[in-house]
């Protein structure tokens, strides 16, 4: 299973590169425009949110760190981000995924619990759910990002095919 999950994540990273290449063609100020009713507001903010979710769920929650020990991108970080900085944030996410897959490769169905902000008692799930959630979360927001780009007058490439 480990090899399949690593290969699957490799395919996800490949489709992400298509999105990065497209976003690099859009002026930076446009990537920061708030598009109402989409994602986290802007293309940059939404994409950073995706990377932070990988880092949180797979790099922090799974390893039983407290939420307070994890730092999400600050408003300043987001405001001063460009596609290169988002790529860097995804490199940190990729490292978290690799560490996660190495650690949990033989325990993907064993429960893991940690605190979440929406309840007092620890929340329990499986590593397989955490991986599935973060990957589907990325594709959900990738759809929002390409829709935001269309609303801003850009024609995105197909970002789902490798």
A few lines on this structure:
With 162 residues, the protein is mostly helical.
Q: Explain this structure to me?
A:
It is a single chain. With 162 residues, the chain is mostly helical. The protein has a single domain, classed as Up-down Bundle (Four Helix Bundle (Hemerythrin (Met), subunit A)), CATH 1.20.120. 60% of the residues lie in helices and 4% in strands. It contains six helices and two strands. It has a two-stranded antiparallel ribbon with strand order 1-2. β1 and β2 form a beta hairpin. α3 runs parallel beside α5 and α3 packs antiparallel against α6. The two termini are 21 Å apart.
Q: Distance between the terminal alpha carbons, to the nearest Å? A: 21 Å
CATH class: Mainly Alpha
The SSE string, one letter per element, is: HHHHHEEH
Q: What structural class do the secondary elements suggest?
A: mainly alpha
Using DSSP, what is the number of strands? Answer: 2
The outline comes out as globular
Number of domains: 1
The Rg value, from CA coordinates, equals: 16 Å
* Average pLDDT metric: 93
Total number of helices: 6
CATH topology, which one? Four Helix Bundle (Hemerythrin (Met), subunit A)
Helix amount: 55-70%
Are there runs of 5+ residues with pLDDT below 50, and where?
Answer: none
Placed side by side, the strands forming the largest sheet appear as: 1-2
CATH architecture group name: Up-down Bundle
Primary descriptors:
162 residues; mainly alpha; Four Helix Bundle (Hemerythrin (Met), subunit A); 6 helices; globular; metal-binding; Damage-inducible protein DinB; DinB/YfiT-like; DinB
